[in-house]
Amino acid sequence: MVTIETPRSPRSRKHAQWEKWGWLYMRYSGAVLLILIFGHIVINLLSGEGIKQIDFAFVAGKWASPFWQVYDVLMLWLALIHGTNGMRTIVNDYTERETVRKALNYTLWIVCGLLIVLGTLVCVTFDPCIDQAMRASLEVCKG
Amino acid sequence: MSAETKKIGEIPSFKVTLFVRRFNPEDGQDARWQDFDVEVFGTDRVLDALHKIKWEQDGSLTFRRSCAHGVCGSDAMRINGRNRLACKTLIKDLDITQPIYVEPIKGLAVEKDLVVDMNPFYQAYRDVKPFLIASDKPEKERLQSAEDRERFDDTTKCILCAACTTSCPVFWTDGQYFGPAAIVNAHRFIFDSRDEAAEVRLEILNDKEGVWRCRTTFNCTEACPRGIQVTKAIAEVKQAILRGRA
Ligand code: HEM
Ligand code: SF4
Ligand code: FES
User: Fold this and answer.
1) Does the pLDDT at position B219 exceed 80?
2) How many CB atoms sit inside 10 A of residue B235's CB?
3) What is the tally of structural domains in chain B?
4) End of a domain among B82, B116, B150?
5) How large is the ipTM?
6) B199-213 per-position pLDDT tens digit
7) Residue whose CA is closest, atom 8 of ligand 2?
8) Interchain contact, A19 vs B207, CB within 8 Å
9) Residue A128 Cα, ligand 3 centroid: separation in angstroms?
10) Buried residues in A57-77 as b, exposed as e (16+ CB within 10 A)
11) Residue A101, CB-side half-sphere exposure with 13 Å CA sphere
12) Residue at which a domain ends, from B66, B90, B116
Protein backbone atom coordinates (compact mmCIF):
# COMPACT_ATOMS: atom_id res chain seq x y z
CA MET A 1 0.00 0.00 0.00
CA VAL A 2 1.22 3.44 -0.85
CA THR A 3 0.73 6.05 1.80
CA ILE A 4 0.96 9.69 0.90
CA GLU A 5 3.28 11.66 3.12
CA THR A 6 1.96 14.86 4.59
CA PRO A 7 3.12 17.53 2.13
CA ARG A 8 3.66 20.00 4.94
CA SER A 9 3.27 19.73 8.67
CA PRO A 10 0.21 21.54 10.00
CA ARG A 11 0.53 24.98 11.54
CA SER A 12 0.72 25.69 15.26
CA ARG A 13 -1.79 23.84 17.43
CA LYS A 14 -2.11 26.30 20.26
CA HIS A 15 -5.21 26.63 22.45
CA ALA A 16 -7.18 24.45 20.04
CA GLN A 17 -9.76 23.19 22.51
CA TRP A 18 -10.00 26.56 24.23
CA GLU A 19 -11.15 28.22 20.99
CA LYS A 20 -13.88 25.64 20.52
CA TRP A 21 -15.21 26.12 24.04
CA GLY A 22 -14.94 29.89 23.65
CA TRP A 23 -17.02 29.74 20.48
CA LEU A 24 -19.65 27.57 22.14
CA TYR A 25 -19.69 29.77 25.24
CA MET A 26 -20.38 32.90 23.14
CA ARG A 27 -23.45 31.21 21.64
CA TYR A 28 -24.92 29.65 24.80
CA SER A 29 -24.24 32.68 26.98
CA GLY A 30 -25.62 34.91 24.19
CA ALA A 31 -28.87 32.93 24.11
CA VAL A 32 -29.28 33.11 27.91
CA LEU A 33 -28.23 36.79 28.00
CA LEU A 34 -30.87 37.62 25.41
CA ILE A 35 -33.55 36.51 27.90
CA LEU A 36 -31.82 37.89 31.02
CA ILE A 37 -31.01 41.32 29.54
CA PHE A 38 -34.45 41.88 28.05
CA GLY A 39 -36.05 40.66 31.27
CA HIS A 40 -33.81 43.09 33.17
CA ILE A 41 -34.77 45.99 30.89
CA VAL A 42 -38.48 45.21 31.10
CA ILE A 43 -38.54 44.88 34.90
CA ASN A 44 -36.27 47.84 35.67
CA LEU A 45 -37.09 50.35 32.95
CA LEU A 46 -40.45 49.57 31.36
CA SER A 47 -42.84 48.02 33.88
CA GLY A 48 -44.29 49.91 36.86
CA GLU A 49 -43.27 53.55 36.93
CA GLY A 50 -40.54 53.04 34.35
CA ILE A 51 -37.12 54.64 34.65
CA LYS A 52 -38.21 56.93 37.50
CA GLN A 53 -38.71 54.00 39.87
CA ILE A 54 -35.03 53.13 40.21
CA ASP A 55 -33.62 54.22 43.55
CA PHE A 56 -32.02 52.58 46.56
CA ALA A 57 -35.35 51.23 47.74
CA PHE A 58 -36.09 49.65 44.36
CA VAL A 59 -32.76 47.83 44.34
CA ALA A 60 -33.16 46.83 47.99
CA GLY A 61 -36.63 45.50 47.17
CA LYS A 62 -35.32 43.37 44.33
CA TRP A 63 -32.37 41.98 46.23
CA ALA A 64 -34.52 41.02 49.15
CA SER A 65 -35.59 38.15 46.94
CA PRO A 66 -33.17 35.26 46.27
CA PHE A 67 -34.65 35.01 42.75
CA TRP A 68 -33.32 38.44 41.73
CA GLN A 69 -30.03 37.82 43.49
CA VAL A 70 -29.48 34.66 41.45
CA TYR A 71 -30.78 36.42 38.31
CA ASP A 72 -28.40 39.33 38.66
CA VAL A 73 -25.36 37.24 39.64
CA LEU A 74 -25.99 34.99 36.64
CA MET A 75 -26.33 37.98 34.31
CA LEU A 76 -23.16 39.50 35.77
CA TRP A 77 -21.04 36.38 35.26
CA LEU A 78 -22.39 35.53 31.84
CA ALA A 79 -22.14 39.08 30.45
CA LEU A 80 -18.69 39.82 31.86
CA ILE A 81 -17.13 36.60 30.62
CA HIS A 82 -18.97 37.00 27.30
CA GLY A 83 -17.87 40.60 26.86
CA THR A 84 -14.29 39.90 27.94
CA ASN A 85 -13.97 36.90 25.65
CA GLY A 86 -15.40 39.01 22.81
CA MET A 87 -12.83 41.72 23.56
CA ARG A 88 -10.12 39.03 23.58
CA THR A 89 -11.18 38.11 20.04
CA ILE A 90 -10.91 41.71 18.94
CA VAL A 91 -7.52 42.15 20.65
CA ASN A 92 -6.24 39.03 18.90
CA ASP A 93 -7.45 40.47 15.59
CA TYR A 94 -5.91 43.89 15.87
CA THR A 95 -2.69 43.60 17.85
CA GLU A 96 0.49 42.99 15.91
CA ARG A 97 3.03 42.53 18.70
CA GLU A 98 2.80 39.49 20.93
CA THR A 99 3.74 41.46 24.07
CA VAL A 100 0.97 44.03 23.45
CA ARG A 101 -1.50 41.24 22.81
CA LYS A 102 -0.59 39.45 26.03
CA ALA A 103 -0.65 42.67 28.09
CA LEU A 104 -4.10 43.65 26.82
CA ASN A 105 -5.56 40.19 27.30
CA TYR A 106 -4.19 39.82 30.83
CA THR A 107 -5.58 43.26 31.68
CA LEU A 108 -8.98 42.27 30.31
CA TRP A 109 -9.23 39.09 32.37
CA ILE A 110 -7.93 40.74 35.55
CA VAL A 111 -10.53 43.52 35.23
CA CYS A 112 -13.18 40.93 34.43
CA GLY A 113 -12.23 38.86 37.48
CA LEU A 114 -12.27 41.90 39.77
CA LEU A 115 -15.67 43.03 38.51
CA ILE A 116 -17.09 39.56 38.93
CA VAL A 117 -15.83 39.28 42.51
CA LEU A 118 -17.00 42.80 43.50
CA GLY A 119 -20.33 42.47 41.69
CA THR A 120 -21.06 39.09 43.19
CA LEU A 121 -20.17 40.37 46.67
CA VAL A 122 -22.59 43.27 46.27
CA CYS A 123 -25.43 41.03 45.09
CA VAL A 124 -24.91 38.41 47.78
CA THR A 125 -23.99 40.51 50.82
CA PHE A 126 -26.24 43.47 50.09
CA ASP A 127 -27.46 45.13 53.29
CA PRO A 128 -30.44 47.46 52.89
CA CYS A 129 -29.91 48.82 56.43
CA ILE A 130 -26.87 50.88 55.40
CA ASP A 131 -29.34 53.48 54.15
CA GLN A 132 -30.83 55.97 56.62
CA ALA A 133 -34.34 55.94 55.13
CA MET A 134 -34.30 52.15 54.97
CA ARG A 135 -33.34 51.89 58.63
CA ALA A 136 -36.35 53.96 59.53
CA SER A 137 -38.89 52.10 57.43
CA LEU A 138 -37.75 48.45 57.33
CA GLU A 139 -38.66 45.98 60.10
CA VAL A 140 -35.46 43.96 59.61
CA CYS A 141 -33.29 47.01 60.28
CA LYS A 142 -34.88 47.69 63.65
CA GLY A 143 -33.70 45.85 66.68
CA MET B 1 -23.17 57.41 -35.08
CA SER B 2 -26.17 57.87 -37.39
CA ALA B 3 -28.69 55.14 -38.13
CA GLU B 4 -27.47 54.69 -41.73
CA THR B 5 -23.84 54.04 -40.90
CA LYS B 6 -24.69 51.65 -38.06
CA LYS B 7 -24.24 48.10 -39.27
CA ILE B 8 -26.86 45.49 -38.47
CA GLY B 9 -25.89 43.41 -35.47
CA GLU B 10 -23.20 45.85 -34.48
CA ILE B 11 -22.43 45.77 -30.78
CA PRO B 12 -22.64 49.21 -29.15
CA SER B 13 -19.39 50.50 -27.75
CA PHE B 14 -18.73 53.07 -25.03
CA LYS B 15 -15.86 54.65 -23.21
CA VAL B 16 -15.00 53.73 -19.61
CA THR B 17 -12.34 54.91 -17.22
CA LEU B 18 -10.41 52.34 -15.23
CA PHE B 19 -8.39 53.22 -12.16
CA VAL B 20 -5.84 50.44 -11.80
CA ARG B 21 -3.72 49.99 -8.71
CA ARG B 22 -0.11 49.93 -9.93
CA PHE B 23 2.92 48.70 -8.05
CA ASN B 24 6.40 48.04 -9.38
CA PRO B 25 8.84 46.60 -6.83
CA GLU B 26 11.73 47.87 -8.93
CA ASP B 27 10.91 51.59 -9.14
CA GLY B 28 11.06 52.18 -5.38
CA GLN B 29 7.69 53.96 -5.37
CA ASP B 30 4.60 53.15 -3.30
CA ALA B 31 1.54 51.59 -4.89
CA ARG B 32 -0.56 54.19 -6.70
CA TRP B 33 -3.70 54.54 -8.82
CA GLN B 34 -3.34 55.06 -12.56
CA ASP B 35 -6.27 55.87 -14.81
CA PHE B 36 -6.87 54.59 -18.33
CA ASP B 37 -9.65 55.47 -20.78
CA VAL B 38 -10.73 52.45 -22.76
CA GLU B 39 -13.27 52.03 -25.58
CA VAL B 40 -15.18 48.84 -24.81
CA PHE B 41 -18.15 46.87 -26.15
CA GLY B 42 -21.27 45.91 -24.27
CA THR B 43 -20.05 42.32 -24.34
CA ASP B 44 -16.65 43.13 -22.85
CA ARG B 45 -15.53 42.03 -19.44
CA VAL B 46 -13.11 43.78 -17.10
CA LEU B 47 -10.47 41.32 -18.34
CA ASP B 48 -10.98 42.58 -21.91
CA ALA B 49 -10.47 46.14 -20.74
CA LEU B 50 -7.24 45.11 -18.97
CA HIS B 51 -6.12 43.38 -22.17
CA LYS B 52 -6.80 46.54 -24.16
CA ILE B 53 -4.73 48.55 -21.71
CA LYS B 54 -1.88 46.06 -21.81
CA TRP B 55 -1.91 45.56 -25.58
CA GLU B 56 -2.67 49.10 -26.73
CA GLN B 57 -1.64 51.54 -24.00
CA ASP B 58 0.81 50.20 -21.43
CA GLY B 59 2.52 46.87 -21.93
CA SER B 60 3.95 46.92 -18.43
CA LEU B 61 0.56 46.36 -16.79
CA THR B 62 0.85 43.04 -14.99
CA PHE B 63 -1.95 40.68 -14.06
CA ARG B 64 -2.66 36.95 -14.08
CA ARG B 65 -5.11 35.26 -16.36
CA SER B 66 -5.18 31.97 -18.11
CA CYS B 67 -8.46 30.46 -19.25
CA ALA B 68 -10.33 33.77 -19.54
CA HIS B 69 -13.55 31.82 -18.98
CA GLY B 70 -13.96 31.48 -15.23
CA VAL B 71 -12.49 28.01 -14.77
CA CYS B 72 -8.81 28.40 -13.90
CA GLY B 73 -9.12 30.84 -11.00
CA SER B 74 -6.17 33.02 -12.03
CA ASP B 75 -7.73 36.46 -12.24
CA ALA B 76 -9.46 37.15 -8.96
CA MET B 77 -9.14 40.87 -8.25
CA ARG B 78 -10.87 43.58 -6.30
CA ILE B 79 -13.20 45.35 -8.71
CA ASN B 80 -15.04 48.37 -7.29
CA GLY B 81 -14.25 47.05 -3.82
CA ARG B 82 -15.58 43.55 -4.42
CA ASN B 83 -13.59 40.41 -5.12
CA ARG B 84 -14.47 39.21 -8.61
CA LEU B 85 -12.97 37.27 -11.49
CA ALA B 86 -12.10 39.87 -14.13
CA CYS B 87 -13.10 37.34 -16.81
CA LYS B 88 -16.61 36.92 -15.39
CA THR B 89 -17.40 40.58 -14.70
CA LEU B 90 -19.20 42.31 -17.57
CA ILE B 91 -18.34 46.00 -17.70
CA LYS B 92 -21.93 46.90 -18.56
CA ASP B 93 -23.05 45.41 -15.24
CA LEU B 94 -20.88 47.88 -13.32
CA ASP B 95 -21.77 51.53 -12.78
CA ILE B 96 -19.98 52.92 -15.84
CA THR B 97 -20.93 56.53 -15.08
CA GLN B 98 -18.14 56.23 -12.51
CA PRO B 99 -14.57 55.05 -13.00
CA ILE B 100 -14.02 51.34 -12.42
CA TYR B 101 -11.50 50.64 -9.68
CA VAL B 102 -9.35 47.55 -10.13
CA GLU B 103 -6.85 46.51 -7.44
CA PRO B 104 -5.15 43.33 -6.25
CA ILE B 105 -6.96 41.04 -3.80
CA LYS B 106 -6.26 42.07 -0.22
CA GLY B 107 -4.34 40.26 2.50
CA LEU B 108 -1.64 38.71 0.33
CA ALA B 109 1.61 40.51 -0.50
CA VAL B 110 1.51 42.37 -3.81
CA GLU B 111 4.31 41.30 -6.15
CA LYS B 112 3.54 43.58 -9.07
CA ASP B 113 0.42 45.53 -10.10
CA LEU B 114 -2.45 43.04 -9.77
CA VAL B 115 -0.27 40.00 -9.06
CA VAL B 116 -0.08 38.80 -5.45
CA ASP B 117 1.99 36.12 -3.71
CA MET B 118 -0.42 33.17 -3.54
CA ASN B 119 1.92 30.92 -1.54
CA PRO B 120 0.39 31.52 1.94
CA PHE B 121 -3.01 30.79 0.38
CA TYR B 122 -1.79 27.52 -1.16
CA GLN B 123 -0.04 26.60 2.08
CA ALA B 124 -3.32 26.78 4.00
CA TYR B 125 -4.87 24.62 1.26
CA ARG B 126 -2.07 22.03 1.58
CA ASP B 127 -2.43 22.01 5.36
CA VAL B 128 -5.95 20.53 5.21
CA LYS B 129 -4.76 17.50 3.17
CA PRO B 130 -6.88 18.12 0.07
CA PHE B 131 -6.63 14.61 -1.35
CA LEU B 132 -8.44 11.33 -0.90
CA ILE B 133 -7.16 9.32 2.05
CA ALA B 134 -8.39 5.70 1.90
CA SER B 135 -6.86 2.49 3.23
CA ASP B 136 -8.07 0.02 0.61
CA LYS B 137 -6.38 -0.48 -2.75
CA PRO B 138 -8.10 1.34 -5.60
CA GLU B 139 -8.66 -1.77 -7.76
CA LYS B 140 -12.14 -0.77 -8.77
CA GLU B 141 -14.38 2.28 -8.61
CA ARG B 142 -15.27 3.59 -5.17
CA LEU B 143 -19.03 3.71 -5.45
CA GLN B 144 -21.09 6.37 -3.74
CA SER B 145 -24.82 7.01 -3.53
CA ALA B 146 -26.33 10.19 -4.96
CA GLU B 147 -27.25 11.26 -1.41
CA ASP B 148 -23.69 10.77 -0.17
CA ARG B 149 -22.35 12.78 -3.09
CA GLU B 150 -24.88 15.54 -2.44
CA ARG B 151 -23.32 16.27 0.99
CA PHE B 152 -20.17 17.78 -0.52
CA ASP B 153 -21.23 18.49 -4.11
CA ASP B 154 -21.19 22.26 -3.61
CA THR B 155 -17.60 22.37 -2.37
CA THR B 156 -16.25 20.33 -5.31
CA LYS B 157 -16.77 23.41 -7.48
CA CYS B 158 -13.90 25.44 -6.02
CA ILE B 159 -11.29 26.73 -8.49
CA LEU B 160 -8.88 28.08 -5.81
CA CYS B 161 -9.15 31.65 -7.03
CA ALA B 162 -8.71 33.04 -3.47
CA ALA B 163 -11.58 35.51 -3.90
CA CYS B 164 -13.18 34.23 -0.69
CA THR B 165 -10.13 34.12 1.56
CA THR B 166 -8.99 37.59 0.49
CA SER B 167 -12.47 39.07 1.07
CA CYS B 168 -12.43 37.87 4.69
CA PRO B 169 -11.77 40.61 7.27
CA VAL B 170 -10.38 38.03 9.70
CA PHE B 171 -7.82 36.95 7.09
CA TRP B 172 -6.93 40.61 6.50
CA THR B 173 -5.99 41.13 10.16
CA ASP B 174 -2.88 38.93 10.23
CA GLY B 175 -3.07 36.39 7.41
CA GLN B 176 -2.77 33.52 9.88
CA TYR B 177 -6.38 32.29 9.63
CA PHE B 178 -6.73 29.19 7.42
CA GLY B 179 -9.34 31.08 5.44
CA PRO B 180 -12.57 30.07 3.71
CA ALA B 181 -10.96 28.39 0.69
CA ALA B 182 -8.94 25.94 2.80
CA ILE B 183 -12.05 25.11 4.82
CA VAL B 184 -14.14 24.67 1.64
CA ASN B 185 -11.57 22.21 0.32
CA ALA B 186 -11.38 20.39 3.64
CA HIS B 187 -15.20 20.19 3.58
CA ARG B 188 -14.99 18.56 0.15
CA PHE B 189 -13.17 15.56 1.71
CA ILE B 190 -14.55 15.63 5.27
CA PHE B 191 -18.07 14.93 3.97
CA ASP B 192 -16.99 12.47 1.26
CA SER B 193 -18.13 8.97 2.28
CA ARG B 194 -15.15 7.41 0.43
CA ASP B 195 -12.60 9.33 2.49
CA GLU B 196 -11.35 8.00 5.83
CA ALA B 197 -9.51 10.97 7.32
CA ALA B 198 -12.39 13.27 8.27
CA GLU B 199 -11.30 13.26 11.93
CA VAL B 200 -7.76 14.21 10.98
CA ARG B 201 -8.95 17.23 8.97
CA LEU B 202 -11.45 18.22 11.66
CA GLU B 203 -8.61 18.20 14.19
CA ILE B 204 -6.47 20.34 11.87
CA LEU B 205 -9.27 22.90 11.59
CA ASN B 206 -10.02 22.81 15.34
CA ASP B 207 -7.06 25.13 15.66
CA LYS B 208 -6.40 28.57 17.04
CA GLU B 209 -6.32 29.74 13.40
CA GLY B 210 -9.03 27.32 12.28
CA VAL B 211 -12.81 27.51 11.83
CA TRP B 212 -13.43 29.26 15.15
CA ARG B 213 -11.92 32.46 13.78
CA CYS B 214 -14.80 32.67 11.29
CA ARG B 215 -17.19 35.49 12.33
CA THR B 216 -19.90 34.66 9.79
CA THR B 217 -19.61 37.90 7.81
CA PHE B 218 -20.64 36.15 4.56
CA ASN B 219 -18.04 38.12 2.55
CA CYS B 220 -16.71 34.80 1.23
CA THR B 221 -20.10 33.61 0.01
CA GLU B 222 -20.68 36.96 -1.67
CA ALA B 223 -17.28 36.82 -3.37
CA CYS B 224 -17.24 33.24 -4.64
CA PRO B 225 -17.44 33.27 -8.46
CA ARG B 226 -18.60 29.64 -8.39
CA GLY B 227 -21.60 30.42 -6.22
CA ILE B 228 -20.39 28.08 -3.48
CA GLN B 229 -22.24 28.53 -0.17
CA VAL B 230 -18.90 29.11 1.55
CA THR B 231 -20.21 30.34 4.93
CA LYS B 232 -22.59 27.37 5.08
CA ALA B 233 -19.70 24.97 4.40
CA ILE B 234 -17.69 26.55 7.22
CA ALA B 235 -20.69 26.22 9.56
CA GLU B 236 -21.01 22.53 8.62
CA VAL B 237 -17.36 21.96 9.48
CA LYS B 238 -17.84 23.72 12.85
CA GLN B 239 -20.82 21.45 13.56
CA ALA B 240 -18.81 18.38 12.57
CA ILE B 241 -16.01 19.35 14.97
CA LEU B 242 -18.54 19.75 17.78
CA ARG B 243 -20.03 16.34 16.93
CA GLY B 244 -16.56 14.84 16.66
CA ARG B 245 -17.28 13.29 13.25
CA ALA B 246 -18.39 14.21 9.71
C1 HEM C 1 -28.15 40.35 24.24
C2 HEM C 1 -27.65 39.18 24.22
C3 HEM C 1 -26.34 38.88 23.48
C4 HEM C 1 -26.23 37.97 22.47
C5 HEM C 1 -27.33 37.13 21.85
C6 HEM C 1 -24.83 37.97 22.07
C7 HEM C 1 -24.30 37.13 21.10
C8 HEM C 1 -23.00 37.16 20.68
C9 HEM C 1 -22.37 36.21 19.78
C10 HEM C 1 -23.06 35.00 19.15
C11 HEM C 1 -21.08 36.59 19.61
C12 HEM C 1 -20.03 35.90 18.75
C13 HEM C 1 -19.92 36.55 17.40
C14 HEM C 1 -18.96 35.84 16.50
O15 HEM C 1 -18.28 34.90 16.92
O16 HEM C 1 -18.87 36.25 15.35
C17 HEM C 1 -20.87 37.79 20.37
C18 HEM C 1 -19.70 38.52 20.41
C19 HEM C 1 -19.44 39.56 21.28
N20 HEM C 1 -20.28 40.00 22.27
FE21 HEM C 1 -22.17 39.41 22.57
N22 HEM C 1 -24.14 38.86 22.83
C23 HEM C 1 -25.01 39.45 23.73
C24 HEM C 1 -24.71 40.40 24.69
C25 HEM C 1 -23.46 40.96 24.87
C26 HEM C 1 -23.11 41.86 25.98
C27 HEM C 1 -24.04 42.26 27.12
C28 HEM C 1 -21.81 42.25 25.76
C29 HEM C 1 -20.95 43.17 26.59
C30 HEM C 1 -20.75 42.94 27.86
C31 HEM C 1 -21.36 41.62 24.53
C32 HEM C 1 -20.11 41.76 23.98
C33 HEM C 1 -19.63 41.04 22.92
C34 HEM C 1 -18.34 41.27 22.32
C35 HEM C 1 -17.30 42.31 22.71
C36 HEM C 1 -18.23 40.34 21.26
C37 HEM C 1 -17.06 40.16 20.29
C38 HEM C 1 -17.40 40.83 18.99
C39 HEM C 1 -16.56 40.32 17.88
O40 HEM C 1 -16.28 39.11 17.85
O41 HEM C 1 -16.22 41.14 17.02
N42 HEM C 1 -22.40 40.83 24.03
N43 HEM C 1 -22.05 38.11 21.02
S1 SF4 D 1 -14.54 28.83 -2.58
FE2 SF4 D 1 -15.08 30.13 -4.36
S3 SF4 D 1 -14.08 32.11 -3.91
FE4 SF4 D 1 -13.10 30.58 -2.58
S5 SF4 D 1 -11.27 29.90 -3.72
FE6 SF4 D 1 -12.96 28.44 -4.20
S7 SF4 D 1 -13.92 29.27 -6.08
FE8 SF4 D 1 -12.64 30.93 -5.24
S1 FES E 1 -8.82 33.78 -16.32
FE2 FES E 1 -9.29 31.75 -15.65
S3 FES E 1 -10.82 32.21 -14.14
FE4 FES E 1 -10.56 34.14 -15.07
Assistant:
1) yes
2) 15
3) 2
4) B116
5) 0.84
6) 999 999 999 999 999
7) B161
8) yes
9) 73
10) eebbebbeeeebbebbbebbb
11) 12
12) B116
